[in-house]
Amino acid sequence: MPAVVISNGNAPDLGGKITYYVIICAVVAATSGLMFGYEIGISGGVTSMDDFLLKFFPAVYTKKHNAKENNYCKYNNQFLQLFTSSLYLAALVASFVASGTCYNYGRKLTLQMASLLFLVGVALNASAMNLTKLILGRILLGIGVGFANQAALFLSEMAPVNYHGALNIIFQLNVPIGILCANIINYFVANIHPHGWRIALGLAGIPATLLFVGSLLIIETPTSLIERQKLTEGMNTLKKIRGLDNTTAKYEELVLASEMAQQVQHPYRNLMKRKSRPQLVIAIVMQVFQQFTGINAIMFYAPVLFQTVGFKSDVSLMSSAIVGTINVLSTVVFVVMVDKVDRRVLLLEACVQIFITQVSIHAILTIDLKDIGVQPKSVALYVVVCVCLYVMSFAWSWGPLGWLIPSETFPLETRTVGYSFAVSSNMLFSFLIAQVFLSMLCTMRADVFFFFADWVVVMCLFVIFFLPETRNIPIDEMTDRVWKQHWFWKRFMDDEDDI
């Protein structure tokens, strides 16, 4: 069966009214972002805890406490990096399976499956007695993340056009909140010996439980009901989420769109057509660029990085919590600005700020961080300030927009599979960064930050020349108002082949 997501209800006749049902669905679905964020934040703190290292990575523990060991290489271990990265490799594969589940069984069931997979993964991690069980738990968590990321499409189908950006970004707001919660928990459990790390990993079950319970309360999207031929339920749900009695025009539009979607026998083949190339390229490139800002190198390994530059364990965990707080506050700023400021403006401003901070970190470490010995605390302090400024700019730009822009650009016949490519691209490069960053830090030293700064220049040029503005443009009007008007992408809109 084809995997297609229909319009999110942007037609003018429905206005921009926010109802109780929309709010509940948005909050519950966005809880999946809380799960995702918690796992991003928890791994770095756990991998810096001595009890965890003694249990699973004794060689790393020995290097960490060896005064003659190279500061840049103390945590360089492929299996330690696999503990973090395996989640994202599993999420990559799961994202494709999840798109089919969304189409055949609905968005609600997909979110329920995500929470259950996540709970099993949490149980395995918290009770792990060997590395194999630990990695297996991370893989199940990754499968859960792959399913949970479909929540962005759920929100797209629920949101009125006037609030499309703000409601979709609730998912992204929950990601930094999850990271912050993980940072705070890591700080408080680090001194609970010898099982503080088990508590940190086990508490990931709280957001998963919230998602499961919440998913029992939400309603399915009208799009999902109609495409599965539950027409009466689709009509009633449409009335509920818009708070209007007269939704006949929109209902008929969704039914027609569903009938057209049923004729799409090869959605992946359609995605490869010339007219789908602009959306596909931008969706993938946005995810690649998001990762090559270096954000997950910071989020995955912040405590490790801060210990590398001279902080002790407890101070490094506190510094990570400060960075997490900046991340949350800056994401709140984005929620306020998302439907008021052009996407391109936010991205370009962030490129400048990220470039300056990455180059500054490179300069500080090159001048002050020696390979061996204890470093001055001022060096670590400067690095923390630069990281905070960096995370601030990322949180109101490339972080949330990396997810929002792909979710609002694909036409109905390729929407689900197209977004799956975006999610899988994000997971692929998250996996790569998680798996190689500590090795890059060991090999390249401070130059690793200049590597990321170089990519920021490329990102800036891409936004200037190839990324069209999509703010306040209904999803179903994107082709005529955006792609056919763009100086470069309009040449791909002359494909008249039947879908």
TrEMBL record:
**Which Pfam families has this protein been placed in?**
Sugar_tr
Provide the GO MF annotations for this entry: monosaccharide transmembrane transporter activity; symporter activity
How does this protein sit in the membrane?
Multi-pass membrane protein
InterPro entries named in the record: MFS_dom, MFS_STP/MST-like_plant, MFS_sugar_transport-like, MFS_trans_sf, STP/PLT_plant, Sugar/inositol_transpt
Give the UniProt keywords, A-Z: Membrane, Sugar transport, Symport, Transmembrane, Transmembrane helix, Transport
Q: Which domain of life is it from?
A: Eukaryota
Q: Where is the Major facilitator superfamily (MFS) profile domain?
A: 25-471
| A single cellular component GO annotation | membrane
Presence of the UniProt keyword Cytoplasm in the record: no
Q: Transmembrane stretches, by residue range? A: 18-38, 79-97, 109-129, 135-155, 167-190, 196-219, 280-303, 315-338, 345-367, 379-405, 417-437, 449-468
Compartments it resides in: Membrane
Establish whether keyword Transit peptide is in the entry: no
In which family does this protein belong, per the annotation? Belongs to the major facilitator superfamily. Sugar transporter (TC 2.A.1.1) family.
Q: What protein name applies here?
A: Sugar transport protein 8-like protein
Q: Which organism is it from?
A: Carex littledalei
